[in-house]
Sequence to fold (228 residues):
Amino acid sequence: MSEQPKHRPIRSFVRREGRITPAQARGLDDLWPQYGLNLPQTPLDLSSLFQSDHPKVLEIGCGMGEGLLHMAENQPQWDFIGIEVHRPGVGALLNGLEEKQLTNVRIFCHDALEVLRDAIPDASLDRVLLFFPDPWPKKRHHKRRIVQPAFLELLAKKLKPGGVFHMATDWENYAQNVLALLNETPGFVNHCFEKGYSERPDYRPMTRFERRGIRLGHGVWDILFTRV
Fold:
């Protein structure tokens, strides 16, 4: 009897490697041993990893790292784990960490769902950040959006009681969809008293693209839910 073909998992990203500059390549080669994390066989001990009991933040899709560098530099009392699948961005982030001499950041270059599932202990995160993920705007591609019921169930396991999931997007349809999903997910409660969108917290830096969008009249929606 022939084996059934295995279905590939639906990814929320496409690896577009792009051009890696010499500086980014140097960062990947020289600085990965200091800041980089490979997917482990068993969940990490986050306190031992950072040698601290500071609150732990996970940012999914940190891009070129500007926002993560800003947050880590301005919140030294927090420890940050970044996840980014595109190597040029990882290289840029690594160089930024060296330049700023930050010790409270580690980085995965791997699928976020696998990192959450295999590397992050249950009830260990104080904050999970998802800023401007790929909106996959075409309806037939909505299944590729990272925020799905299974993703939220996984987050509920990894966040501490009182931990916060914070998403920001400039696609209103995506924001509406995520708000509805979270309102239906057991174990989460909306930060906003009106049960809608939240004001941007001070810790979330504004990107140059966001500032440009606001000048053009584009909206940005912040969604914050607490794990209860």
